[in-house]
Amino acid sequence: MKISIIGTGYVGLVTGVTLAEIGHEVICIDVDAQKIEKMKQAASPIHEPGLSEMMARNIAVKRLAFTTSHQSGFEDVDVIYIAVGTPENEDGSANLMYVEQAAKDIAENVVDDVTVVMKSTVPVGTNHKVKEQICNAVKGRVKIEIVSNPEFLKEGSAIEDTFLGDRIVIGSDSMEGAMVVAAINEPFGVPIYHTDIKSAEMIKYASNAFLATKISFINEISNICELVGANIENVASGMGMDNRIGSQFLKAGIGYGGSCFPKDTKALIQIAGNVNYEFDLLKGVVNVNKKQQLLLIEKLNQCTDKIEGKRIAVLGLAFKPNTDDMREATSILIVEELIRQRAEVVAFDPIATENAKSILHPLVVYAASVEEAVEGSDAALIVTEWEEIRGINLSVFQKMRRPLIIDGRNCFSLDSMKEYPIEYHSIGRPAVTESVKLPY
Ligand code: UDX
Fold it and tell me: Which of 135, 156, 196, 256 might form a disulfide with 322, Cβ 3.0–4.6 angstroms?
């Protein structure tokens, strides 16, 4: 099938490249000419394992192309995917400016019948409005089908998730549209769930909100574990063995970040609010996350007389490992607060440093390794559980001025920490201090 994709952000690019990989002829459209030129050379604008190689392979066999022109991008296509961003408005609702622009571009340029597939995360009812917008503005007798096909991929494992996903959701009000999208996706071999458009739109928000709820829930349990002397790792393992609960997304830490959970939880609260429904549970999830994100600072304040003038190593900046994405990363809030309290911040991240530089305070100093970051520091805060951090030889922390680790991602086992004269605080587990002979 000949497919055109509007938007080459995370979702659009991965969708385009993987659809080409399973044999479709794909053309990706973006307004950013510089980005398009780079992608024509198979240079991926995002760090995603396996993506560049797959891009190169499909460009070479002419199954994948890039353009800034909607007119040529829509030429002879059977299907157009909308995969543009839906950023957060100030009140938490989803900003549909780019989706509306995509609808306008489709209406102005298509000359034949086409199926429009919505990949962007949009509030319930948006697909119907987009169809209406296109139908009202399109020239000539062109038949438009619209299908909701939300995206569930995770950054860092996007390709794997596409080929080994749990389900593909297809929301359509017509059999014809549903069959077209099912046929496109069939080679992935992933189970397909057919439903109506509004339910498909809701499935995306409800899934992300549920996962965020699991995280905030386990984070609250971890805070209680600390107070009663239980160990969150043992608690999560025991809970996760119950199939009704499931073992995933029970990793306690310093809250969720990224481009989806923070935005989608707030958008769902708004969606409910628009129909006069107070989503109290989800409001709680969002509030718990806010509190959890500053937990390391709270713990640091309990361990030290004052933060001012202290050299603090911040280990990991990306919102999670295996990505250079800094969107809504917990590190942003932590670094901001450290700088506000006049600490000297030395940060390390294996790949997000360049992105971090444009976001974090200019006073932050960047180290090239964990060792360089911690040397001479008064505390090390672990923010992202990169393998480079989890796998480090613990003796490097002995080079700190004060060997104090506050670990927001439970990277090290308590037993291994007991072997070193290092003070170790983590999330929902007892602190390790007994083996430490502190000169303070
Ligand atoms: C998420 C959803 O998983 C995906 O289905 C959706 O399409 C987009 O949003 P992503 O943002 O890439 O994907 O990251 P994910 O791996 O889900 O992690 C999100 C955040 O939750 C990260 O900050 C991570 O550190 C945190 N998290 C995740 C936890 O704190 N504990 C967990 O157990 C799992």
Answer: 156
